[in-house]
Specification:
Layout (H helix, E strand, L loop, with lengths): L1 H21 L3 H11 L2 H7 L13 E6 L7 E5 L4 E4 L7 E2 L14 E2 L7 E5 L4 E5 L7 E2 L8 E6 L7 E5 L6 E3 L7 E2 L7 E6 L10 E5 L2 E5 L7 E2 L9 E9 L4 E13 L2 E5 L1
Antiparallel strand pairs: 1-2, 2-3, 3-4, 5-6, 6-7, 7-8, 9-10, 10-11, 11-12, 13-14, 14-15, 15-16, 17-18, 18-19
Helix pairs in contact: 1-2
C-alpha cells in the first residue's frame, strides 16, 4: 500500500512540477526539469505499467466474479468490452459480434453458476448471457426490450431476475431464471439499480429499485411497484445500491442524488 501511495504522489508531483514549469521563466524551468529527471523520482514514475487495455477512451463498470477473483470484465466507452482471467494482469477484447460495451450497465455474474454472466450489449442494447465465463455471448430473450440499464439476480433464489431499462415502464422480471418475462408494473423513470432484500420470504421477495424519479418498492417479487420512502432531496437520483443480511435481519439502501448549493447549504450527495 505504501509503494502504491508513493507512486501516486510521485506522479502527481511530476504533473504539478511540469505545469509550474510551463508558467515559469527559463531559470526556474531548468530547476524543475532537473527535479523531474532526478533518478529517485523517475524510478517511482516508471513503476507504472500498461495492463493491456486500450481503445482511446475511459473504462467503466468493472466487475469481478464472486466465484473466481481472477475473472474480470470491464467496458470501454469506445464500444469494446474486455475480459481478464488472471486478475487483471492481461486482457483480451471480447469480439464485437458477441458483446459491445455498455458504460451504464454493470455485468452481473450468476450467484451459483460460475460459468454464467449477464451483460448489456451496447448503449441501450439488449441483454445477453455468456455460459462460458464471458468468451461467447447470446441474447437472453427476444421478449426483452432493448435499452437495458441494470440487471439483478436474487442471490438466495437465482430463478428471480430483474432487468431495468432507461424507460422504467419497460423493465422486466423473470421468476424462472430468464425463460419467461413479465413487465414490472408501476416502475417509472430511468432505472439505475436494484436490491433484492434477503430478509424477506423467498416466495414473496421484497425488491427495491432506484430510478431517476426516486426509490420504488415491490412486495411481490418484482411484479408490481410503488414509490417508496421519504427524506430524499428533490433531485435526480443517479446511483443506487443496497445490502441485506437475513441472519441479522437488516436491509440498508444507499442513494446518490444530484447536488447543489441551496441557501448556502449543500443539498444532495449520498
Amino acid at each position: 500500500m505504501r509503494d502504491i501511495a508513493a507512486v501516486v504522489v510521485a506522479a502527481l508531483l511530476a504533473l504539478a512540477l511540469t505545469s509550474a514549469a510551463q508558467c515559469a521563466g527559463p531559470t526556474l524551468r531548468g530547476k524543475v526539469r532537473d527535479m523531474i529527471e532526478h533518478e529517485v523520482l523517475q524510478e517511482k514514475i516508471a513503476a507504472w505499467e500498461s495492463m493491456g487495455l486500450s481503445g482511446g477512451g475511459a473504462m467503466y463498470t468493472p466487475v469481478i466474479s464472486p466465484h473466481d477473483p481472477n475473472l474480470m470484465l470491464v467496458n470501454c466507452d469506445m464500444s469494446c468490452a474486455f475480459r481478464s482471467t488472471d486478475g487483471g494482469q492481461s486482457w483480451e477484447m471480447i469480439h464485437h459480434q458477441y458483446l459491445l460495451a455498455s458504460t451504464r450497465c454493470r455485468p452481473v455474474f450468476h450467484p451459483s453458476d460460475p460459468d454464467v454472466v449477464y451483460g448489456a450489449s451496447g448503449h441501450r442494447g439488449q441483454l445477453k448471457v455468456s455460459r462460458d465465463r464471458g468468451v461467447t455471448w447470446e441474447p437472453v430473450s427476444e421478449d426483452l426490450a432493448r435499452g437495458v440499464r441494470a440487471v439483478a439476480i436474487d442471490p438466495g433464489n437465482a430463478e428471480l431476475m430483474l432487468v431495468g431499462h432507461f424507460e422504467g415502464e419497460r423493465s422486466a422480471v423473470s421468476p424462472d431464471g430468464g425463460s419467461n418475462w413479465g413487465r414490472c408494473e408501476g416502475l417509472r423513470g430511468e432505472v439505475v439499480g436494484f436490491h433484492i432484500d434477503q430478509t424477506s420470504p423467498v416466495a414473496r421477495r421484497v425488491c427495491f429499485a432506484g430510478t431517476s424519479e426516486g426509490v420504488f418498492r415491490s412486495q411481490d417479487a418484482g411484479l408490481t411497484w410503488e414509490q417508496f420512502g421519504t427524506g430524499l432531496p428533490e433531485h435526480r437520483l443517479v446511483e443506487f445500491a443496497g445490502g441485506s443480511d437475513s441472519e441479522r435481519n437488516e436491509c440498508v439502501l444507499y442513494c446518490v442524488v444530484e447536488g447543489e448549493v441551496v441557501d448556502g447549504k449543500y443539498v444532495g450527495g449520498v
